[in-house]
Amino acid sequence: MTLKSTLDTRGPEYRERRRAMLEKLAALDAEHAKALEGGGEKYVARHRKRGKMLARERIELLLDPDSPFLELSPLAAWGSDFPVGASVVTGIGVVEGVECMIVANDPTVRGGSSNPWTVKKSFRASDIALENRLPVLNLVESGGADLPTQKEIFIPGGRMFRDLTRLSAAGIPTIALVFGNSTAGGAYIPGMCDYVVMVKERAKVFLGGPPLVKMATGEEAGDEELGGAEMHARTSGLADYMAVDEDDALRLGRRIVKNLNHRKLGPPPGPGPVEEPLYDAEELAGIVPEDLKVPFDPREVVARIADGSRFDEFKPLYGTSLVTGWTRVHGYPIGVLANAQGVLFSEEAQKAAQFIQLANQSDTPLLFLHNTTGYMVGKEYEQAGIIKHGALMINAVANSKVPHISIVMGASYGAGNYGMCGRAYDPRFLFTWPSAKSAVMGPQQLAGVLSIVARQAAEARGQAYDEEQDRAMREMVETQIEAESLPFFLSGRLYDDGVIDPRDTRTVLGLCLSVVHNAPVRGADGFGVFRM
Predict the structure, then answer these.
(1) Is the CB of residue 63 less than 8 Å from the CB of residue 96?
(2) Cα(454)–Cα(466) distance, integer angstroms
(3) Closest Cα partner for 200 from 238, 231, 235?
(4) Distance CA 91, CA 72 (A)
(5) DSSP bridge partners of 431
(6) What is the tens place of the pLDDT at every residue in 200-217?
(7) Are 515 and 132 in contact (CB under 8 A)?
(8) Handedness of CA 250, 95, 403, 436 (dihedral sign)
(9) Number of neighbours of residue 226 by Cβ within 10 angstroms
(10) Cβ contacts of residue 275 below 8 Å, gap of 6+?
(11) pLDDT one-digit tens code per residue, 164-207
């Protein structure tokens, strides 16, 4: 069925929602600009003076002309003591027609050294590559660990090398293009990769540089004889190819990918040509209200991302605060679960569990569109079995084997975040809109609960309750939870794969669906015990 939009794009409500969203998008652009700045003007200029390209320039030349690049976690480390972006660029791009995971050190940020957020961001890239069978291209120029924070890097950081070997063992190629220093732990990146390209007179790969060798052994040795590209190509055998310059290294990287004979294992899109939605994606900027207590119809979102705005709704008259149904995005079939009124009741949970089972039966990926305050509480709902019904839905999500993609449009609170496949439930991708908020509950509710508990404790001790202190506590807690619920804060901690412009949602979904079909798409054989 073709969806009919009732969105009044000329009305004051739409204009106000759009204005608020555009303000948030302007703030998002400002934060993204910080990631693009790298280590700042001074270090960018010094890098260029050495005749080197920036990380994103290398990526651009590596990719097929005019092909998209889906950058992941660009706000990593936001709100921390480290630069936004975490000194590494990760994302998915097309090289010689093959979708690849690209990991590029940013040498303008402390020499490309790895801080705690670099490590976490790299882990996420590895997970995505493994799940979706994406060849990995490492664009290496790294000084290894950021030594002042080694206590947070050294132990978990070993997983980066483990991941490379596991990718290779799974038949997923790993490639290192080394443009500069690759020191200490960084030396194991090319050491663990299937293919290694080093730039002549630029690449330096060694476990210990000249100063460390001097201190450890007393031996005098220069950079080139210790770890230069020519030595590794002629003597150690670590380099499979020696490039004359950066452009040549990128050319060789493309040739390696071309010769991989990589094939997607999932079904192709189609049949038939892809149809654009009937409604303008620009209108997605005016759908979500600034006050997330005000509900909105998620069908208006589906109408602007689905092929031909077609949507076959499942159980439309039952559990109406959760919209479920089937559609296609860029030719790929997908099942949609979208919150309509925020609260999840028993009916919605049971409906969701059945729908998820059906998607697994038909090997159909699932899209979760979040705007939920969680499962309903209260005597009537507890007695009606909201716990076991919520558990039914969470069980279905946890044991579903088809690819999941989550987009947090509005609220995503409490166990509703779990039931709608939040980060803890390993969706293949999770993106947020600038309007999103996630927490254990809303700021006012959380502050109110703490106030009630404190008041009851004072009464139990026979003490008078300090109302002024209570107001101050509520205000402090509300401010803290509001700040910790915002998408920049959550994205900085890698609880999503990026904050996206709502108007780009269809494009992002199309890229993600294409990526997940690099691996087989198969549903679960069983779901364990469902409490009925």
Answers:
(1) no
(2) 10
(3) 231
(4) 5
(5) 407
(6) 999 999 887 777 767 777
(7) yes
(8) positive
(9) 18
(10) 307, 308
(11) 999 999 999 999 999 998 887 788 899 999 999 999 999 999 88
